[in-house]
C-alpha cells in the first residue's frame, strides 16, 4: 500500500515552509514543517508498544535530547559520548554581576572530554548509513545536569544536513556524510547548555545565539552552501534557549524570536529588525507558535506566560491580542492544533484555550498516571501525542474536551520530541531510535 503524500502548503496557519517545497512526507527541522509540531498525515498508527507497530529499533552511539529529522529515505540525529575528566581543564568562567568565577549549581560535565556525533539512518530499515564525529575534545562551557550537549535538533533541505552544538560549532554535511564546512564561535551559556535549533530560510542557515548576560547576544545567518557569514544582528537579550519561527504577515516574511526581555521580529534575508515588544519576562525556552494571524509566545519559569501577538505592520498598542498566566511548564513547548492552544505543565497537566481569543476551554486535564515531561508534543490525525520521560505516549484527543484515548509505552526513557514522516513516527529513546509504523 502506498503511503499518502499530503501537500502541507502553509500549514493552514500562516507559517512559511522555507527552502524547497516541503510536503508532510518530510520532517526537516525541530518540530517539523514550520517548527510547529503538526503533521497533516492521517495514515499513522495511534497504538504501539515494544512488540506492537515497531517497524525497527536501532541502538544509537551516545545519547542526546535532540529530535530526529527526516527527509525522504534518511533519518538524521545528533548525539554525544561523554568521556573522561581532563586533568586541569574546566569550562569557561561566567560573568554574573561582578563575579567572574560564578558556577551554576546545576552545571556539570564541563571538565570532561566529549565526542559530538551526527548520524544518518535508513528510514526503511533503521540501518546506520553513516556516523560522523563533528567534534571531539574539551567543551567551552558546561551543561545543566538534566540537559545534553546534543540538545539542538539538526535541520536539512534534503541536500545538506546542518548540525548545531552551540559553542562547539555548526557543521554542514552532504547526504553522503562529507563535511562541507563548519563554523565554531565559543560563547557563554551559564553552564546550562544549548537549546536553540537552527532554521533554514532560502539560502541561509540562521541561529539565535543568546549568551550569559546579553553583552554578546546575536542572531546570525550563514550561507548554507559555503558557511560564509551573511548577516549578524546584535540582540539586547540575555541567555535563551528558544528556537525562532518564520511567519508570513503584512505581505512579508518575519523571523520571530522570543527572549525574556523582548520578543523581536527580523527580516530573515538581512537581519534587519522589523518590530519588537515586551518579552516573556521568564526563561525563554519554548518555541513560539503561529496561527490564526497570531504568534503566541509562552514561558513557564519563574513566571507562567502566554502572550498572543499580532505580527506584521501593526501599531505597538495593538500588538498584544490577549494574554494568559497559567498552565505552562518549564521546558516543554506547547502546541497550537486547529482552533485550540494546548498548554502543558511539567507533570503533563493540560490546559486548552481558544487560540483566537484565549478563552479557557478546560483546565486541569490529567494523564492517567504520574509522569514528568521533557519532550514536546506533536499533533496528528486528530490527536495530541505527549511522551513522558518514562517513554509513555499519552494520546490526547484534540478538541475542547479533555480525553486521553490510550497510552502507548516503549519501556525506555524518552527526553526528546517525536518526528513524523511517510506514515511513521520516530521516537528517540535514551539509547535507541524507534520507528513506529508498519515494517
Describe the structure.
By secondary structure, this protein is mainly β. It has a single domain (about 35-435), classed as Methylamine Dehydrogenase, Chain H, CATH 2.130.10. It contains no helices and 36 strands. Strands 1-36-35-34 form a four-stranded antiparallel sheet, with no helix packed on it. A four-stranded antiparallel sheet has the order 2-3-7-8, with no helix packed on it. Strand 2 and strand 3 form a beta hairpin. Mean pLDDT is about 90; it is low at about 1-25.
Helical element count? 0
Biggest sheet: strand arrangement: 1-36-35-34
Q: What is the SS-derived class?
A: mainly beta
How big a fraction of the residues is strand?
35-45%
Helix fraction by DSSP (H/I, runs of at least 4): under 10%
What would CATH call the homologous superfamily? YVTN repeat-like/Quinoprotein amine dehydrogenase
Whole-number radius of gyration? Answer: 20 Å
CATH C-level name: Mainly Beta
Number of strands: 36
CATH-derived architecture = 7 Propeller
Name the shape in a single word: globular
Give the termini separation.
12 Å
Q: What is the CATH third-level topology name? A: Methylamine Dehydrogenase, Chain H
Number of domains: 1
User: What is the mean pLDDT?
Assistant: 92
The description of the largest β-sheet is:
4 strands, antiparallel
Low-confidence stretches: 1-23
Summarize the structure.
The protein is mainly β and 439 residues long. The chain contains no helices and 36 strands.
